[in-house]
Amino acid sequence: MGKKRPRPCRSFTPEFKAGTVELRWRGDRSGQVAKDFDLTETAVRDWVKQAEVDTGEGDGLTSSERDEPAALRRENRRLREDVELLKRTAAFFAKETR
User: Among residues 31, 41, 48, which one has the least CA distance to residue 7?
Assistant: First the structure.
C-alpha cells in the first residue's frame, strides 16, 4: 500500500464558500457537497458553521471579528515603521542644524 500524499493547501474565494454553504443549506449532505467539489467534509462543515455565526444563528466570533486582530496588527506594524522613520528623520535634521 502506498502512502497517501497530503492534500495541497488551497484557498477559496468568499463567493465559492458562500455557494458551497448555500448548497449545504438547501439540503445536500456535507459529504456529498465535499465530494462534488473535491473538498474535505471538515472544510464544508467549518464554512457552514462560520456562515451560521455570521448570520447570527450560531455562537462565536463573526468573520469580521476574526479578521480585526490581524488588521490591527498590520496597522500597528505600519505605524511603528512610520514612527521609526520620523525618529531617523528628526535625528538627521538635528545633526544638520548643529
Answer: 41
Residues 51 and 18 occupy one common structural domain: yes
Asked whether residue 1 is assigned to any structural domain, the reply reads no
Question: Considering the domain boundaries, does residue 5 fall inside one?
Answer: no
Distance CA 12, CA 14 (A): 7
Contact in structure between 54 and 63 (CB atoms under 8 Å): yes
Show the domain range for 71: 62-98
Indicate if the pLDDT at residue 71 is higher than 60. yes
Q: Residue 3: what pLDDT? A: 72
Could you report the per-residue pLDDT of 43-60, keeping only the tens digit for each? Answer: 999 999 999 999 888 888
Please give the Cα distance from 49 to 43 (Å, whole number).
Answer: 10
Residue 4 falls within a domain, yes or no?
A: no
What is residue 10's DSSP assignment? Answer: -
Query: Which whole-number Å values give the CA distances from 13 to 3, 19, 77, 85, 88, in the listed order?
Result: 30, 10, 27, 36, 41
Does position 1 have pLDDT exceeding 60, yes or no? no
